[in-house]
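Please, structure for the following, as tokens.
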Amino acid sequence: MFISFKNPIEKSKIIIAVIAITVLITALFLTDISDIKDTNGADDFLLSQISLNDIINNSVTSSEYFSSFKNSGNSSFVTDVYRDKDYDIIQYSAKKKSGTSVISATHTNKNAVIFRLDNKVVSGNCRIIVTVNNEYYDEFELNCSDEITLTDIANKTIYVIMGCESTDFELELHREII
């Protein structure tokens, strides 16, 4: 079957549309979307494939679907790649997240900071830790409100980092520098 076009512009539009659809479908099949499966069951939120060292080093590529990240409040003037994570309030959610990522960054000349985290993990595995100068300090409990107070932190860099394996979650982190 052969389609005859009287108008060459119509023919060009159809050819461009077919090429665009072909490119889009090819791109979808070739895209590598990393996902770390939850292999230890729905009732167990412990990470099974990402290690504490992976989280501390933020070394596992992160992917997420249907996510939202909002920040507000004051900055402590972190000047590196985590500038968008340097706020007093962080609200973050995703329907499915895998990998590691920094969710808060702080560098201050003050001596103490308090983090208050409200979080809900619906499914998957998750761990949320605090590091000071890239060394493990503490971690937050899951599915509750938790607070961590750090002292003697003047001129140190503090990160709140999460590791996730197919995690559906929502959280709100408040930071108070004192």
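The first strand starts at residue 63 and ends at 65. Strands lie at 63-65, 68-72, 89-108, 112-132, 135-139, 145-151, 156-177.
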